[in-house]
């Protein structure tokens, strides 16, 4: 039956397409989720953070890219005290890993930022200070599909960065982020982020920078948030400050050349947004076809307006 095949495909996408970082990797071994990576209290941990200007129906758990949740994900600060602090040597790598076997199968860049905790007490730090960028990755395979596997992070479940050797000793938040940009052409970039708590030792005397703050550093008017991946390969305007060179004062960075993103005129393909219906449910009290109808922590409607509720996984029950 054609319908059920399509429904199964949609369900499989829901299970694999959204994700969150819940752990880090040390010498190849994934740590217990939440041991060094702050947890989240959001109802649907795997869902993205979008801008408050986006349609209400596309906002998940009240998380906003222009709100505090963009720092380390919703509720992360409430888990700071119970999250351990990982001691890392400057010059060594840190790696964050997605939970539940998920892979980054949205197109878009990966980033790693750091922010020093006041008083070098990261368990008491809310992330409201200055952030500097230590790593970014965009397109690795320009000959591949720009809407999919051209992006470095495609199909991976980790992001890795090197703590710059010049980083001063102290306690920091290390913020890992993937941004899905398949809907940036309609101003809906999807931010996936979590923070690792670290204590840097053996560091240097560099002055990290340039910096930005969160929220505020990402705006819905930024080029990356209005960029179309459709119509072929083009330069992507990386959001956030330039990557710190690891040594000098970053206050006067060499500006990276920014191409003006061409206005996209080709028709956009119909967007598949997994489990996120474009139209409101006919019965406003129940979830629409492909909408969520259950799962751990889910608080919305558990009935389906034009279908029945199926268990996709523990986190996601869907109207199919
Ligand atoms: Cu998505």
From TrEMBL:
Which Enzyme Commission number(s) are on file for it? 1.14.99.56
Q: Name one Pfam family in it.
A: CBM_1
Biological-process GO terms, alphabetical:
cellulose catabolic process
In this chain the CBM1 domain maps to 285-320
Q: Quote the PROSITE patterns the UniProt record gives.
A: CBM1_1 (PS00562), CBM1_2 (PS51164)
Please give the SUPFAM superfamilies that the UniProt record associates with this protein: Cellulose-binding domain (SSF57180)
Sections of the chain in a coiled coil: none
Top-rank EC class of the record's enzyme: oxidoreductase
Q: Does the keyword Transcription apply?
A: no
Alphabetized InterPro entries for the sequence: AA9, AA9_LPMO, CBD, CBD_sf
What does the UniProt keyword field contain?
A: Carbohydrate metabolism, Cellulose degradation, Copper, Disulfide bond, Hydrolase, Metal-binding, Monooxygenase, Oxidoreductase, Polysaccharide degradation, Secreted, Signal
**Signal sequence, renumbered to the chain:** 1-17
Gene3D superfamilies xrefs: 2.70.50.70
Annotated family: Belongs to the polysaccharide monooxygenase AA9 family.
Q: Indicate what this protein is called per its UniProt record.
A: lytic cellulose monooxygenase (C4-dehydrogenating)
């Amino acid at each position: 039956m054609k319908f059920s095949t399509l429904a199964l495909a949609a369900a499989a996408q829901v299970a694999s397409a959204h994700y969150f970082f819940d752990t880090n990797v040390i010498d190849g071994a994934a740590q217990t989720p939440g041991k060094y990576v702050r947890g989240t209290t959001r109802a649907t941990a795997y869902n993205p953070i979008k801008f408050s200007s986006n349609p209400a129906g596309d906002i998940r758990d009240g998380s906003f890219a222009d709100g505090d949740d963009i720092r380390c994900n919703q509720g992360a600060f409430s888990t700071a005290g119970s999250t351990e602090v990982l001691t890392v040597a400057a010059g060594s790598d840190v790696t964050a890993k997605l939970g539940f076997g998920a892979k980054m199968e949205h197109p878009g860049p990966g980033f790693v930022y750091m922010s020093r905790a006041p008083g070098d007490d990261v368990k008491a730090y809310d992330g409201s200070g200055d952030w500097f960028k230590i790593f970014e990755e965009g397109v690795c395979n320009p000959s591949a599909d720009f809407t999919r596997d051209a992006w470095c992070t495609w199909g991976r479940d980790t992001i890795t960065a090197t703590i710059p050797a010049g980083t001063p000793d102290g306690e920091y938040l290390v913020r890992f982020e993937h941004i899905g940009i398949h809907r940036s052409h309609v101003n809906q970039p999807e931010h996936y982020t979590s923070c690792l708590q670290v204590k840097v030792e053996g560091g240097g005397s560099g002055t990290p920078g340039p910096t930005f703050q969160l929220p505020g550093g990402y705006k819905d008017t930024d080029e990356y948030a209005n960029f179309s991946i459709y119509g072929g390969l083009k330069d992507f305007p990386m959001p956030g400050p330039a990557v710190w060179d690891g040594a000098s004062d970053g206050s006067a960075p060499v500006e990276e050349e920014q191409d003006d993103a061409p206005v996209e005129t080709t028709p956009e393909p119909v967007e598949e947004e997994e489990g996120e219906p474009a139209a409101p449910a006919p019965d406003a009290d129940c979830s629409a076809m492909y909408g969520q109808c259950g799962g751990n922590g889910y608080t919305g409607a558990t009935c389906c307006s034009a279908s029945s509720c199926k268990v996709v996984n523990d986190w996601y029950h869907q109207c199919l």
